[in-house]
Description:
Strand content: 5-15%
Radius of gyration: 18 Å
Oligomer: single chain
Strand order of the largest sheet: 1-2-3
Largest sheet: 3 strands, mixed
Number of domains: 1
Amino acid sequence: MAGAEMQRDTLATACDPLHPRPNPQPNVSLLLQCRALPLPQPYSLQDHRVGAILPLDAVGSEVLGQTGLSPITIPVMMVAGSHDTTAPLTLEQFRLFNWLKTRDRYLGLIKGKSHIRNWDKLMASLQLQLKIMPTLPTPDPSVSDSYIKALSVAFFNVYVAHRLQSSVYLHASYGQFLSQSPYQLSLLDSSLGTLGSAQAYTPSLAEY
């Protein structure tokens, strides 16, 4: 809805099981991204009524990629978890955040948050036992929910409701204020450059 453009050729290569992958780390989100291959081309992802977006646990490294994200010009706040094994932080949200060209972009990192809101509840509902990841954390969902609610209110107040006084909450200090141990919240913004080059990110990312 923000104007990103699907990159079918890049996606087709990533989804080809015979094509060697440069990164050996598994990316489960490709199972979802590859389902976009049958979509007609060009496929519009633009809705001009949308003034800002806040994607949670975003994926798009292959279906959109750096080229596909470049048309996005509206403000973006992404929220990600350090223990997301479905859409890995280093393969998805970090890369997407770096590739965004929009001036106003933010990344909220929640330590311990996984893609699934409550693993125990999910496994019980499916009558399954989780054996492949026995140490997977199950943080209190209410903590991450409170972070997301606080960040989204501040973000949309500024960029949709145009209440600029809320901009004071879109800084790292607000993330520190909200944090509840052991599920720390770090709020990063585009003023620090990219995750790969900005030394200012180092303290925030050290725990991840």
